[in-house]
Amino acid sequence: MPDYTKAAIARLIDHTLLAPTATRADIVALVAEAAELGAYSVCVSPSFLPFDSASMPIAAVCGFPSGKHATAIKAAEAKLAVAAGASEIDLVIDVGAAIAGEWSYVRQQIARVREEIGAAVLKVIIESAALTDRQIVNACQSAAAAGADFVKTSTGFHPAGGASVAAVRLMRETVGDQLGVKASGGIRDAATAIAMVEAGANRLGLSATRAVLAGLPD
After folding, report:
1. Which helix (H) or strand (E) holds 72?
2. Residue 13's closest CA among 36, 41, 53, 33?
3. Which of 50, 67, 74, 176 could form a disulfide with 85 if both were Cys (CB 3.0 to 4.6 A apart)?
4. Directed axis angle between helix 165-175 and helix 133-145, to 10°?
5. What digits encode the pLDDT tens for the residues 135-183?
6. Among 116, 55, 126, CA closest to 90
7. In this structure, is residue 1 part of a structural domain?
8. Is residue 117 included in any domain, yes or no?
């Protein structure tokens, strides 16, 4: 049977705080809470780096939340974040370019960031709720071709919405075992988290980590 205990699900979680109003004190509290709950990592805005994560991996977002940044800016932001202690980068694609079918440009941006961050884990946020199924497939294929390690559903900031079971399933079908799939955006209870894992997610981006884990057995 699948392991949906608190500890097992916690090991999939990037405990996340990306609110524009977040303070450094909030990040200290985030790290402490992540350690208490057994989360895999914390995910933060790069302006907070460096900080002591108590040996827990740090993910930093890049081109967040719009993705409408020049390639050189995204590459520099990611490189600086890794130099300051991030071991994972969550990169937002140019969603408009994806909608317009400008896949060469999308791949170019991802590949440039990949080049700048060395061995760091690269997760590519495709903003799946804003894309058609065909665009989701193309975005995932572009991420894979450009050297990404994960594809990720959402920033959690787009008006179209966050993660959906259907999108996660399609993303997993597209990348197979080649890449990880991170579900993020709007996951606020245990049932939704489990549904995402069952659909193929092997990482979860959560700000409601405590509430999600509270709904799971020990």
Report:
1. helix 71-83
2. 41
3. 50
4. 40
5. 999 999 999 999 999 999 999 999 999 999 999 999 999 999 999 999 9
6. 126
7. no
8. yes
Considering its fold, how many domains does the chain have in total? 1
Taking residues 66-90, report their average pLDDT. 98
Encoding tokens for residue 138?
């193309």
Is pLDDT of 54 > 90?
no
- List all residues 6 or more positions away from 45 whose beta carbon is below 8 Å from its beta carbon: 18, 22, 60, 61, 64
Q: Which domain holds residue 120?
A: 6-214
**Average of per-residue pLDDT across 26-46:** 98
- Domain annotation covers residue 152: yes
37 in any annotated domain: yes
- Residue 138 belongs to a domain with what CATH number? 3.20.20.70
* DSSP secondary structure string for all residues of 5-57: SHHHHHTTEEEEE--TT--HHHHHHHHHHHHHHT-SEEEE-GGG-S---TT--
CA distances from 71 to 65, 106, 166 (A): 15, 10, 30
Q: Which residues pair with 62 in a beta bridge?
A: 91
Instruction: Tell me which residues are annotated as active site.
Output: 90, 152, 182
- Dump strand ranges (E) for 106-194: 121-125, 150-152, 180-184
> pLDDT tier at 85 (50, 70, 90 boundaries)?
very high
Query: 185 — alpha (psi -120 to 50), left (phi > 0) or beta?
Result: left
* β partners of residue 59: 43, 88
Rg (CA), the chain: 16
